[in-house]
Amino acid sequence: MMTNPTIPKLNFSPILPLIPQNVAVIGAGAAGLVAARELRREDHKVVVFERENKVGGTWVYNPSTESDPLGLDPTRVVIHSSLYASLRTNLPREVMGFRDYPFVAKNGAQRDPRRFPGHVEVLEYLNNFETDFGLIELVRLGAEVRRARLEGGKWKIRSRMRVGEELDEVYDAVVVCNGHYTEPRIAEIPGIETWPGLQIHSHNYRSPEPFQGQVVILIGSSASAVDICRDIAGVAKEVHIASRSVTVGTIGKLPGHNNMWLHSMIESAHGDGIVVFRDGSAVCADVILHCTGYKYNFPFLDTNGIVTVDDNRVGPLYKHVFPPLLAPLLSFVGLPRKVVPFALCEIQSKWIAGVLSGRVLLPSSDEMMADVEAFYRTLDASGIPKHYTHYIGDSQFEYNDWLASECGYPPSEEWRKEMYSAAIKNMEVRPETYRDEWDDEDLVAQAHEDFKCFSKGNGNLSQ
Ligand SMILES: Cc1cc2nc3c(=O)[nH]c(=O)nc-3n(C[C@H](O)[C@H](O)[C@H](O)COP(=O)(O)OP(=O)(O)OC[C@H]3O[C@@H](n4cnc5c(N)ncnc54)[C@H](O)[C@@H]3O)c2cc1C
Would the pTM of this model clear 0.70, i.e. be above it? Predict the structure, then answer.
């Protein structure tokens, strides 16, 4: 079914005078760029702080790794991106792109026309987004926010430029877009302190060569874990995957691979190099690679304890965006996980921009807090652990559509929802080849029909 693809620049008839705000956006990845665009569309004055020398966040591949391969040493120089060299997207490009800036294949030396392109293509797309919407003038590159603190109803932002000097400024509102794939979470393994091998977090994995001839245990079953174990299996002597989500009958050698085994979680590690799994099997390993995810981290943010990170729950946050007591002057873009990030960040940003200008109204702080508490009770009642608070996965389109209705924007296109489900199913059915074989050509055709109205020059790319 086709939906109306025409997305207006702003769909409202203001009753109140709109109030432009001075807004600091922290981070110029996909979230920060789209937040900047939406804020400027509502006439806010925007500065985007970006500590790196390029925009694109995660998608700026960095071949270097951190001094501590586990990423735990607080004194290490942090490398932002967790990309590995071979990474191709795990979503089809039609689904992955912003709603009103389709991620279509382009001609050019750096371009990758594949439906699940390599990471360089995603960075090119974000660079094109920045250029086409004239966002360059809003971004301060090499400017790290060291502290953001609310004082007397205004945000005091202290930033440090790469060259060293610090700057203190005052803003009305802060939008946090600092990403959440940089601060590693690692697995707790009894006996690990005596185990003599090398431990690495996937944040510091770039390519398989260092694992030549090694026995590697990889912990995890996320999309990255699946990619990395196949990357490594090409050169390693053995790859053993330790996963929480194994089912009876799947443990053992993986079909189609002669040096890869699936195990249950690790039970213990020992001084002689042996690692024992809960299923009773054991191997003598050289490396443990933790593909165990990341922690939310906002080292610069001082809210006087109003917003905390507790077991990876950032809260309290109304709809994963606004802390009830600080709304709308503080907001977060891109916290939900297991989602299609770009489109979600886009609609969250429209909501934030509309709320800041007074076009879109929020409930009272008490009502928002009651909503958050009810949400936490629902999670508890369903037995969902705190650290899954922001895993909205299956309800992401419902979430996006609720936000869209709040700010007068059409709901997600039917083809996008169907294509997302088809891609997830295809990944399960064809784990080795899903990026190159699919059955949803009809949905691709519908997407391209919709995309026709977004070609540059037809008025829809207005700033
Ligand atoms: C290995 C991997 C594979 C992925 N694959 C896909 C995929 O196939 N498809 C998909 O859609 N998504 C994928 N993602 C998710 C990806 O993170 C999102 O697509 C998107 O990049 C998130 O954008 P963001 O702006 O929220 O965060 P980021 O891209 O992380 O950007 C945050 C920015 O904030 C900056 N920053 C941080 N702290 C400060 C500070 N104090 N001051 C100033 N600047 C600061 C950082 O330098 C960075 O530029 C993947 C993620 C990873 C890690």
Answer: yes
